[in-house]
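Sample entry copied in:
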Amino acid sequence: MKNLVWMFSAVSAVAAYVIARQQARNVAAQPVAELAHKLEVAWADHHTIA
C-alpha cells in the first residue's frame, strides 16, 4: 500500500512538471505586443461593462 502511494505521488509529480513546462513554453512563445493587446482589450471591456 505504501509503495502504491509513493508511485502515485511520483506519477503526479511528473505530470505536474510536464504541465508546468508546457505552460511556460506556451507563455514564452507569445510576443509581448500580443499580450499587451490582450491586456488592453480586457481593460477596455472591464471599464465599459457596468
Summary: The radius of gyration is 19 Å. The chain has one domain: 1-49.
